[in-house]
Specification:
Helix content is 11%, strand content 45%. With 138 residues, the chain is mostly beta strands. It has one domain.
Length: 138
């Protein structure tokens, strides 16, 4: 018998589309599905955040967050932030598409982007995850 504990929820995107959330409590993984499962390119934004997107339609397909409870912990200064070091390796066109998708609905309901200005010429993109509480166990 499996002791898998999944929490499921649905929320609405600003455009009225349904977003499906599945949280695996044992694995501490949150998967957010913005669209039906379709062919997509996976982009590791960090070691723990994967964005899947359809480059043709320029839309997000899903967002996977590993160690969700840790990534959403609050500090005395606010939410934990993480550098988007996965963007550095991307070709410029794909990097711009990822930033566009991540800063617009529906992805920006869950993933917030900003930057740290390391010097006048160097901006380091950072992110934090919006916390989400699941009302029931599926």
């Amino acid at each position: 018998m499996s002791n898998l504990k999944l929490h499921r929820a649905e929320v609405k995107a600003p455009d009225g589309e349904t977003i499906r959330l599945i949280y695996d409590e044992n694995g501490d993984i949150l998967e957010i599905f913005f669209d039906e499962n379709e062919q997509a390119t996976g982009v590791e934004l960090t070691d723990h955040i994967l964005l899947r997107l359809n480059q043709t339609t320029r839309r997000a397909v899903s967002l996977t967050i590993l160690h969700f409870s840790i990534l959403t912990e609050q500090t005395e200064y606010g939410p934990r932030s993480y550098p988007l070091d996965g963007l550095e390796e991307l070709p410029e066109e794909l990097r711009e598409l990822v930033i566009h998708i991540a800063t617009t609905a529906p992805v920006n309901q869950f993933l917030k982007l900003s930057h740290f200005q390391e010097s006048p010429m160097k901006h380091v993109p950072i992110t934090y995850i919006e916390s989400y509480r699941f009302p029931s166990v599926a």
